[in-house]
Fold this sequence. Notes:
- It is a single chain.
- Helices cover 33% and strands 18% of the residues.
- By secondary structure, it is of the alpha+beta class.
- The protein has two domains: 7-116, Ubiquitin-like (UB roll) (Roll), CATH 3.10.20; 128-449, 2-Layer Sandwich (Creatine Kinase, Chain A, domain 2).
- Strands 7, 8, 9, 10, 11, 12, 13 and 14 form an eight-stranded mixed beta sheet that branches. Strands 1, 2, 3, 4, 5 and 6 form a six-stranded mixed beta sheet that branches.
- Helix 6 packs across helix 7, helix 8 packs across helix 10 and helix 10 runs antiparallel to helix 12.
- This is Glutamine synthetase.
- Keywords: Ligase, Magnesium.
- InterPro entries: Gln_synt_N_sf, Gln_synth/guanido_kin_cat_dom, Gln_synth_cat_dom, Gln_synth_gly_rich_site.
- It comes from Thioclava pacifica DSM 10166.
Amino acid sequence: MNSMKDWTDRIPQAARDYLEGRRLDEVECIVADIAGVARGKAMPASKFQFQDRFFLPNSIFLQTITGEWTDNPSGAFTEPDMILVPDFSTATAAPWTADWTLQIIHDVEDQQGNPVPIAPRNVLKRVLSLYEAEGWKPVVAPEMEFFLVARNVDPNQPIIPPMGRSGRRAAAKQAYSMSAVDEYGKVIDDIYDFAELQGFEIDGILQEGGAGQIEINLAHGDPVELADQIFYFKRLIREAALRHDCFATFMAKPIEGEPGSAMHIHQSVIDIETGENIFSDEKGGETEAFLHCIAGLQTHLPAVIALLAPYVNSYRRYVPDFAAPINLEWGRDNRTTGLRVPISGPAARRIENRLAGMDCNPYLGLAASLACAYLGLKEQQMPKPECLGDAYMSAEDVPVNLGDALDLFSEDAKIRDVLGHEFCAVYEAVKRNEYKEFLQVISPWEREHLLLNV
């Protein structure tokens, strides 16, 4: 790079507008780790302009959510440097900072210039390359659910809803209530403002069924771009909440007795040559490819639940009658099923995967769901008969804990082929380490009911 102008000319218009007439102070060079946490480094813009790559150790992908380190399944723990290469198309503002800062997501390569296979963004790109080799392009539209909660600085205390502008705590069972959204309107206003400054399009914001639970819908588009947006949105939303003395949490089940938070994934597939949705035929009817994708999801989703529900808390969400699936039934316009076919015209025909929790890494959640559909297209099997009633009345076929989910993940050879064996080995090692840590914790329930009674 020879000058600041050389790279600022390559960034999106929204980032250029943000910097118009101002001097850029800092650049944050970031990547998503296994958990979806932003890792990287910040540096003065005056230094960033003279570098075209940066370095981080590969151990960032071996760290658990608690900060512990997992042994590298592929060899010694030597922590070699990886190369971070800026993807300037991802440059966006960090409008909550005190100075003028841009965030830039970086691609992760080894020292020979090859994509690092354990980097979550690269896992998603790997899956998309398999689609491209067949002449297909997936399209996704994610929904993000999260809770605004009162500040909680003591992990031993339960999470409670935030105080609204009325002076009362947010109430549950107020789905789609506009007055409920207005209770924390200042946080919503900041979310909109930050999103606009970052160049993100929000399709809509609504109140969900939980106390202080909000859903944000994003416009459909390219899976990598949407995963990047969710990665950014999580930080954006947290920062907006902190401005108003509350927390935003993407934990799957933060409040006992309340619904959990999902990342529903709407997905379809476009024929690259024709630009048409392969789920619809010339007369607007459903194609066999559409049914094959449903069958692929039914067959292989159990093996990727460990990616869609990555923590012990994630499995508290899969309970009947709490707006979360307990099995892999499918149905048209049926929200009790794990796989829902929404009402749409032929061009927008799609499958909604309702299994993913909002606590999943967005790159890995999308990669996992798309991997199952890809295998369905290749295997060309037919799904189980459509569920026409209440799917909660059907048998449960979703793993009930992280240990069981990891066992299924380790057994599906086809899924491991699609996602990459090295990634799968690292992911499983990290998650088994986390699960082992959790099992060492003595819970309040155990102290309350077992201490003096057994």
